[in-house]
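re: that chain from earlier
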Amino acid sequence: MSQAVITRVQLGAAHDGAAELLLTLRFDGGGETLVPLDHVAAGHLMSACGATQADALLGQGWERVRDALATSSNRFAGPDTHPQG
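^ sequence. v structure.
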């Protein structure tokens, strides 16, 4: 499995004009992808990495980005979306 790390961090604007964090992930084979994070995901990522500035995210693994995206997405999940065991 290819490991990806954050190699670039920029501030951008979402379609609604809200600020978002734009991350470039670089994979072992040299490929890159751009990942936008909304304010919830960006805040989670910054906190999880102990970062106080965006540049401190450089070199962080994609797993932290994945977790931040999941946190942002899960905020919309209602109580009936998780089956009870």
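The CA atoms of residues 41 and 69 lie 5 Å apart.
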